[in-house]
Amino acid sequence: MEKRKRRTEISRNAIARTAGALVLAAFVASFIGGTAMLFNNPKLYYYTPQYHTSTPRDMKMGTYLYDHTRIAAHPEYFDDIALMVDRVLVDLMWTTMVKNASYPTCFDIPKYVFYDQFFQNLTSRGLEVVIQFSPTRSLPTWLNITSIERDDGRSRTPPRDPVERARFIQHCMYYVNYTVDYYASKPYAPMIEYCLSDEPYTADWSDVFAAMYAGIKARAPAATVSNVLNKPELYPAFLGSLDMLTIDPYNDDFEMAQKIRAAHEVAGNAKPVRVIVSGMHDDAFDYQRIYRQLVISWFMGAHDMWFWSYNSRWDGETNEWYVVLFSEDGPVHTERADAVLNARQDLEIFGQIDSYLKTGTDQALKDFISEKQLNAYSLIVRNNFSGARRELLEAKELLDESP
Questions:
Q1: Tens of pLDDT, residues 375-394
Q2: Burial class (CB in 10 A: 0-12, 13-18, 19+), 19
């Protein structure tokens, strides 16, 4: 009875909005006009790629994992990670997984066994795993490469010398192919994605990535292949060697939104775009920035939203860039972790709204939750998270009651 009464009230409100008195009509016109101006302003950040226009979206979140040995020794961290995200990136560094140039006996088998158990622990909790390779920064010394430009521990380009370049690609492919073969045979293989690299400097990596992509697809045809890019000018260079464009935009909200839009446009709205928001500023506004940019990424059509990172550089003393601190007694959440968890709750409601707007049949309810979504988003970009939550909870209550 109460449910019928609530739904009748929605219908009456919908009629009132379309037919009501002049004063109400003027208010609505003013609201719509103001909203249109807001949403036409590039600083509002709203973009829907073609593949999101009619299909309901999954709300997925992810993060990077570091200090794998310590996590492996503390199962409570696996549970905490699963509380926060759906996907994790794990870097299997070239220098860690391959001991020397003596193919095929060069692989560090105990390391592969360790990560097998690590991935079992992650996937048993429903987490998907992105295995990241590292040719752009994890250059083994035993390769004896000299014609390479280095900067802050990263390789700006592959080797310039043709002979060294051929040797570099050959050994890189030993590392990639063995890794894919090893984990593609595991029961959790459907939950594995492969990431080619982290933030290449130049387009000169295109032949390396093309070889890596072909090798991965030959061994795991159904697996998604991604690449983390931080320079919009490089999006087109590597588009043919990835299935998902992962961008690390940094910057403020406006510049971030521009880079997301550019990624969609370069991909021709045909390949998904993943967005990684940065929590590495170590200031009083990190909570607001992470919360806001996760939600903005959703409204900019991100396939999934990630944060960098769960536990970079755990040393037990400082909290620079951390989301979660390490303690022998269990995870210690910073304000950044609170931002992630709170944004996750809101994004789940946005996902519920998105699904009903695309598949629901009650137009009055659609009108109501669409307005609530609009209100909530405009509040979030102004850091009014509590006000946005109230709008979203009103929408969720009625969605939960809908047939």
A1: 999 999 999 999 999 999 99
A2: exposed
Rounded CA separation 219/107 (Å): 18
Q: What is the DSSP letter of 221?
A: T
Lowest mean pLDDT among 134-138, 211-215, 277-281, 391-395: 277-281
| pLDDT at position 151 | 81
Rg of the chain, C-alpha, whole Å: 24
Residue tagged 């009055």 (tokens) = 364
* DSSP3 helix / strand / coil % (the chain, rounded to 5): 55, 15, 35
Q: What is the pTM of this model?
A: 0.89
Question: If you search the block for the tokens 């429903």, which residue do you land on?
Answer: 126
Percent of residues, the chain, with pLDDT higher than 90: 77
Question: Of 123, 197, 205, whose CA–CA distance to 160 is shortest?
Answer: 205
Kindly report the CA angle at 210 between 204 and 213, in degrees rounded to 5?
135
3-state SS, one letter per residue, for 270-313: CCCEEEEEECCCCCCCHHHHHHHHHHHHHHCCCCCEEEECCCCC
- What is the rounded distance in angstroms from the CA atom of residue 324 to the CA atom of residue 334? 6
Summary mean pLDDT of the chain:
88
User: In degrees, to the nearest 5, what angle opens at C-alpha 85 toward C-alphas 396 and 193?
Assistant: 125
Amino acid at 401: E
Site of tokens 């509590």: 386
| Closest of 395, 387, 345, 400 to residue 366, by C-alpha | 395
pLDDT tens-digit map of 338-369: 999 999 999 999 999 999 999 999 999 999 99
Distance set, CA 228 to CA 161, 170, 198, 303 (Å): 26, 22, 5, 14
Stated as kind and residue range, the H or E segment containing 190 is none
DSSP 72: H
- Distance between CA atoms of 211 and 189, rounded to whole angstroms? 21
Query: DSSP letters along 102-122, please?
Result: -TTS-B-HHHHHHHHHHHHHH
| Number of neighbours of residue 358 by Cβ within 10 angstroms | 14
